[in-house]
Amino acid sequence: MIGRCLLLILLPLLGSSLQARGTGDLGVIIERADSSVQIIETSGNSSIGRVTGLGDLSHASVVYSRDARFAYLFGRDGGLSKIDILAGEIVNRKLQSGNSIGGAISQDGRLVAVSNYTPGGVKIFDADTLELVADIPASYGEPGQRSKVVGLVDAPGQKFVFSLWDAGEIWVVDMRNPAKPEIEKFKGIGKNPYDALITPDGRYYIAGLFGEDGMALLDLWDFSAGTRRILPGYGKGEEKLPVYKMPHLEGWAVAGDLAFVPAVGRHEVLVINMRSWREAGRIKVHGQPIFVMARPDGRHVWVNFALPDNDTIQIIDTLQLAVIKQLNPGKGVLHMEFEPRGEEVWLSVRDEDRVEVYDTESFERKASMPAKKPSGIFFSARAHRTGL
């Protein structure tokens, strides 16, 4: 009898010890052509699982719950999927629109927002149940007219901030009372904002403008100042190149007082002085930059490129403001993700069905693993960063 009682006590303890695992070194790789994500760990640089049945992932992105256990995946088909990365399974999934391009999670982790092209607007869901909390149409102009929504980020104070591509506006939604969202609208910011970012401290929201040179800056601490144009006419008098792929501002490459952003339709990375918000330099690069991402310590900035140069990575030294290294990982380098403290970086090489891991000091390749048409790579450390 005593032996049986001990066995009944030990079994749950053994079971929980076998299943115990933290999530701090986990992440997912989007396998865009296979409707799947691969779950990976960065301590040993290995794949530990795969989740399938996730719909159209041609422009997919991920945010994490505050405990870094659940990944919220936003698919191009309007799918919102909640994935348990410890169990390796879909917890919940719903088609919330016809065409979706990204999302964000609130400061307290209780709300998940999705930006939509079709119909234009933002929907906000309960992070636990995925029940709809708020539906915010991006209405402008004539009755029934809606804008595509881009550049959706979370901001301090339970806010979401996003831009309206068609309307040329920035909206800030205050969700401190989920039953009564408060919306502040900033109009006439510029033509066709295509993407946006928020500074790491959550103060400044910056929208890139595709229809004209420059960017629109909004100080979230001082709405009364409205929006401000920065880098106006940075390409004035120069012939723009055809844009093969829209650059992304996600990542927010910051080193000290300097910010590094891709120039639209140019073979340049622009350097911005964040004290004056004026141009502080331009760095000639190999092609049209897509992602310009800083190593977590800000010492180097890594850049990938649009076709026909998407087999190349260049590394910029933020002291010298110059390219110091060029790598050629393979065809179709779509995304980069630094490990939380920056010692290694993961690169998706879509056209060769693999992911590469590089040492960020020596620039040597440390690991390679197969993946089915990989694109975005998202580590769970994003759970604790504003705007990611």
> Helix fraction?
under 10%
Largest pleated sheet: 4 strands, antiparallel
Low-pLDDT runs of 5+ residues are 1-18
Widest sheet: strand ordering: 3-2-1-32
Supply the CATH class of the largest domain: Mainly Beta
pLDDT averaged residue by residue: 91
Number of beta strands? 32
Q: How far apart are the termini?
A: 55 Å
Form type: globular
Distinct helical segment count: 1
Model description:
There is one protein chain. The protein is mainly beta. The chain has two domains: 41-233, YVTN repeat-like/Quinoprotein amine dehydrogenase (Methylamine Dehydrogenase, Chain H), CATH 2.130.10.10; 245-388, Methylamine Dehydrogenase, Chain H (7 Propeller), CATH 2.130.10. The chain has one helix and 32 strands. The protein has one helix at 2-19; strands at 26-31, 36-41, 46-51, 61-64, 70-74, 79-84, 89-95, 99-105, 111-118, 121-126, 132-137, 149-155, 159-164, 169-174, 182-186, 193-198, 204-209, 215-219, 227-230, 253-255, 258-262, 268-273, 278-284, 289-294, 300-305, 313-317, 322-327, 333-338, 344-349, 354-359, 365-370, 374-379. A four-stranded antiparallel beta sheet has the order 3-2-1-32, with no helix packed on it. The chain has a four-stranded antiparallel beta sheet with strand order 4-5-6-7, with no helix packed on it. Strands 8-9-10-11 form a four-stranded antiparallel beta sheet, with no helix packed on it. Strand 18 (215-219) and strand 19 (227-230) form a beta hairpin. The radius of gyration is 21 Å and the shape is globular.
